[in-house]
Amino acid sequence: MGFFENLFGGRRDPSASVAKQRLMMVLVDDRYKLTPETLEQMKVEIAGVLSRYLPAVDAEQIEVKILRGEVNDYLKADIPLKRGQPDVG
Amino acid sequence: MQRSNGEHMGRVITITSGKGGVGKTTTTANLGTALALQGGRVVVVDADIGLRNLDVVMGLENRIVYDLVDVVEGRARLRQALIKDKRLPELCLLPAAQTRDKDAVTREQMIDLTGQLRREFDFVLIDSPAGIENGFRNAIAGADEVIIVTTPEVSAVRDADRIIGLVEAAEKGPPNLVVNRIKPRLVNRGEMLSVEDVLELLAITLIGIVPDDESIVTSTNRGEAAVYDHQSQAGRAFLDVARRLRGEEVPFPVLQEQQGVLERFFGIFGRRRS
Ligand SMILES: Nc1ncnc2c1ncn2[C@@H]1O[C@H](COP(=O)(O)OP(=O)(O)OP(=O)(O)O)[C@@H](O)[C@H]1O
Ligand SMILES: [Mg+2]
């Protein structure tokens, strides 16, 4: 955050959305014993599997979330694929 | 409700939370009074053994002779221990023991007790102690349904989620949620979790939104439920919870920011009669 933004207190996320984000992580951890470390590990392994079929998966870019539903919870993964590097073999 | 053999079957509903101090006792007292005002026969049971509280919130502390532990240990009959409300003849309190600890009763005794009470009353409301230990387990043992109270705070919501898991594991059916102590002004500024946020996190059915309201302080001081106070937003919210519990479809009103004395004074003239 820049000096001026700091000075005027701008650009800080409202505390409620911070609370919500933190709670999302905490509840997932409570329910599934999934710590941020194991989550990272999971991403690396997902990237490993997918790389066997797709050339351009980057573990660092994967976003994994667990969403609460009425009956089930859902694991949602956003996996960006690097574009524009077709295999010129 | 009627059993096939013709026996009366009231609903046993436990009010619980996980985190302490979020409003279980306040909710039990107001919901019980609201249900009785709406014509139900209601008993509220203080299951917070050792930390008796519901009696003072309801203004019945001077009438206690016997308590819940006296009943389960056979020193008093149930009818002797039940205290009639000051105003509503169809509302009763079964007080907790003050001098015993949480382990003075067992789950089986609670199941037996609620089984007796449901034959006499339409609603048996049980005020649970905080926590996830024996006291809580006793409080839900005889329940058909569970209401979970939370405030819109990180720690309260987290503990509510723990409790939801335990209630589901105990096969009590999906619990209903009361979000208590909402401050609309803070929510509008983005500085307090909104009801929608809490619902998204906990994913259970909402049955009440209760604002943070000074009238809870004054009504508790007097030992009168806030539902008697027609000016009380929290009181109205609890009346709505009672109606929803009875199966009515009641929309959730948009909460007003708490008004100053002047606005409230002028508001009296501005409000339409209903
Ligand atoms: N909507 C509200 N507005 C203002 N104050 C409230 C509200 N709800 C509860 N309170 C206050 O918060 C305090 C705790 O409430 P209460 O005793 O009902 O919580 P509890 O969950 O039963 O606590 P415990 O876990 O200790 O049994 C009380 O002083 C009560 O008056
Ligand atoms: Mg209490």
Q: Could you characterize what this model shows?
A:
The complex is a heterodimer of chains A (89) and B (274). With 89 residues, chain A is α+β, with helices and mostly antiparallel strands. Chain A has helices spanning 3-7, 15-32, 36-51, and strands at 63-68, 73-78. Chain A has a two-stranded antiparallel ribbon with strand order 1-2. Chain B is of the alpha/beta class. Chain B has an 8-stranded mixed sheet, sandwiched between helices. In chain B, strand 6, helix 7 (154-169) and strand 7 form a beta-alpha-beta unit. Chain B starts with 10 loop residues before the first strand and ends with a helix. Classes of the chains: A alpha+beta (89), B alpha/beta (274). Chains A and B meet through helix 2 of A and helix 7 and helix 9 of B. The complex binds adenosine-5'-triphosphate and magnesium ion (MG). Magnesium ion is lined by residues 24-25, 48, 53, 127 of chain B. Adenosine-5'-triphosphate binds at residues 17, 20-26, 48, 130, 180-181, 210, 212-213, 216-217, 220, 234 of chain B.
Short description:
The complex is a heterodimer of chains A (89) and B (274). Chain A has three helices and two strands.
List the helices and strands and how they pair.
The complex is a heterodimer of chains A (about 90) and B (about 270).
Chain A (H helix, E strand, L loop, with lengths): L2 H5 L7 H18 L3 H16 L11 E6 L4 E6 L11
Antiparallel strand pairs in A: 1-2
Chain B lengths: L10 E6 L7 H14 L4 E5 L7 H4 L10 H5 L5 H4 L1 E2 L6 E4 L12 H14 L2 E5 L6 H8 L3 E6 L3 H16 L6 E7 L1 H5 L6 H8 L2 E7 L2 H9 L10 H13 L15 H10 L4
The site of adenosine-5'-triphosphate has 19 residues of chain B, from α1, β7 and α10.
